[in-house]
Amino acid sequence: MTVSSATSPGIIPSGSVTSSSIDVASIVSQLMQVESQPVTQLQNEQSGFQSQITALNTVQGAVSSFQQAIQGLTTLGQYQNYSTTSSSSAISATASSTATPGNYSVSVSQLAQAQSLVAAGQTSETAPIGSGASTTLTFTFGTISGGTLSSGTYTGASFAPNGNGSKTVTINSSNNSLEGIAAAINGANMGVTATIVNDGSSTPYHLVLTGPTGVSNSMQIGVSGDATLTSLLSENPAGTQDLTQSSAALNAQMTVNGIPVSQSSNTVSNVIQGVTFNLSGVTSTPATVSVSQNTGAVTSAVNQLVTAYNALNTAIQGVASYDSTSNKAGPLFGDPMVNNIQNQIRSILNTPISGTTSVYSTLAEIGVTFQQDGSMAVNSSQLNTAIATQPSDITSLFSTVGKATDSLVQYAGSTPSTQPGTYAVNVTQVATQGQLTGSAAPNLTITAGSNDTINLNVDGNPVAVTLPAGTYSSASALATQLQSSINSNSTLSAAGVFVDATINASGYLNLTSNVYGSASSVAVTGGNGSSGLLGSAPVQTNGLDVAGSINGAAATGSGQLLTSTSGNSSGLSLTINGGSAGSRGTVSFSQGYAVSLSNLATSLLDPISGPIAAEISGLNSSISNIGSQITNWQSRLTSIHQSLTAQYSALNVMLGTMSQTSSYLSTQLAQLR
To answer: Which has the higher per-residue pLDDT, 15 or 643?
Structure first.
């Protein structure tokens, strides 16, 4: 019997016994490769899902970048930019989005000027003045009329407050030097600039006060407290004048298209709508100021939209297309959600704008079209023609636009639920302001401590007023002083509330809040002078909110704001600036492409309900589930590995024993021979 001493690894031939051990590790390894194939398949599947997530993150980032790029295009003012030119260096101008292009003839005969007052000279800038007792400086601004001016002092003049209220400054031992007084006045931010001028004399240091420009901004300064400061700083053009006037307050005098205009400032913004004139000199001949639309802003907006879309399209194509050259598909090739994103965007860009009054309703009409490769391109020649023909109408292709046929009805806002369309506006009640009307002519003589106080509640804000004592020249002069005193109240100023005090046809005082609506009211609550000013039975009339309908459905009113709450116009808000009750025409509401695309991007990027986030979440869930399967398989493979190792190790031991037996038998047989 022949005994073989070697065989192929791991294989035992029939009729022979190996004399060496088998390679257990190699055999088990090869068997485990077969057993591990399901795990490899799961890992490949997991890797594929991860590639899709990476690609979806690319899409998500591209959509976000797209939205950021077009966000600024949703604002109407982005396109309504105007440029100005002037034929004179004495006049420049700027124009806002509400301007109307045109040419204006402007001449200037006098610049606005501020009043300057000079105090008596002092020997030191830093030495204390007076006792240091707490002293209040009260600045009131108004108009000086009549009288004569000689050496900086008025004789026989009168002073009428401008009704904008008084401002106070406190001086005490901490700041009763010239430097301290100047710093305190400047720190009050009331429009008065305090400087110290050295004239080189024995008492060289003069406090110089310069007020705001305009004839109605002359200064009256009341001083209460220290006697020395009182004699230094008191200034009443109609009475005691301890300061001297070095320059008078003047208005700018100009003509615009032949119409005389007087303004308190050299910055004139309320003569031509949307146009601000900046005056720096007097003109010898009329200047021509031209306002024209800055069409570059429109061109930039169009190209910005096209560039943003093409960047998004390139990013999506990079992960969702098939490359026929390399025969490789992107990780999101054929993904229905990504295909839907592309379809939604293209659908918006291909759909005409509804609800617009513009002559343009599609991008193609201004030269923006899709190319064969899916990108967009701009026909510059066609765009320039559109801009030259009707530049303002291009804005409706991009932004939200609301246009009313009634000049006193203005678009104020909308919500995502507001649908484009043309809606009828009907007003059943125009908003009014709260007011208080006296029942008798006011007493013109005000006596301190007797009839000088009145307590009011204006729009829910308590106001306590003390009028300066004296006999007023007229009911109108008293009304102006009362208005100034009321509007000086810090609580009202902080709330943005003020009142107008006028004299009605009966000669009675009338106090009207600047606020419209049911929150507006003016009520008298006390004071020793209330009956003398308003009579024994003043009439309080609270404000009313606007009321009416939009698109035939009742709308809610708040002040002058009328808001639709139902139907396609839901969320549409209009400001009704007066007028009468009844039909007020229509409002056309449209949303341009930039608005619609931005809204779509917001929904796509929603981290909870957005489709991109949902797909990423689903893929992450699948990856997690596969991970669990892999873990289970790996546990099973560990058991299989252990079992195979045990089986083949036992076989190895058995073969070793058989080898020893074979050797023994061979020896015995050899001896028998």
So the answer is: 643
* Number of other CB atoms surrounding residue 309 within 10 Å: 23
The pLDDT of residue 1 is 31
Burial class of residue 278 in the structure, from the number of CB atoms within 10 Å of its CB (0-12 exposed, 13-18 middle, 19+ buried): middle
Neighbour-count burial of 16, counting CB atoms closer than 10 A to its CB (0-12 exposed, 13-18 middle, 19+ buried): middle
pLDDT tens track for 66-94: 999 888 787 766 666 788 999 999 999 99
- Tell which residue, 239, 189, 182, 210, has the closest CA to residue 115: 210
Cite the beta strand spans of 438-526 per DSSP E.
Answer: 445-446, 453-458, 461-466, 470-471, 499-503, 509-516, 522-526
429: β partners: 547
Question: pLDDT over 90 for what percent of the chain?
Answer: 66
| Phi, psi at 477, each rounded to 5° | -65, -40
320-362 pLDDT, tens digit per residue, is 888 888 888 889 898 999 999 999 999 999 999 988 888 999 9
User: Nearest-CA neighbor of 369 among 383, 385, 354, 390?
Assistant: 383
DSSP 542: -
Determine contact, residues 181/142, Cβ cutoff 8 Å: no
- Smallest CA-to-CA distance from 415 within 242, 584, 571, 566 is with 571
Could you give phi then psi for residue 570, rounded to 5 degrees? -50, 130
Q: What is the pTM of this model?
A: 0.69
Q: Which of 526, 613, 24, 27 is nearest to 341 (CA)?
A: 613
- The four Cα atoms 602, 607, 609, 611 give a dihedral, to 10 degrees, of 80
Parallel/antiparallel/unpaired status of strands 158-171 and 244-247 = unpaired
CB within 8 A of 480, min separation 6: which ones? 142, 160, 161, 162, 163, 501
As a whole number of angstroms, the distance between CA 556 and CA 548 comes to: 8
Query: Closest Cα partner for 350 from 363, 340, 337?
Result: 363
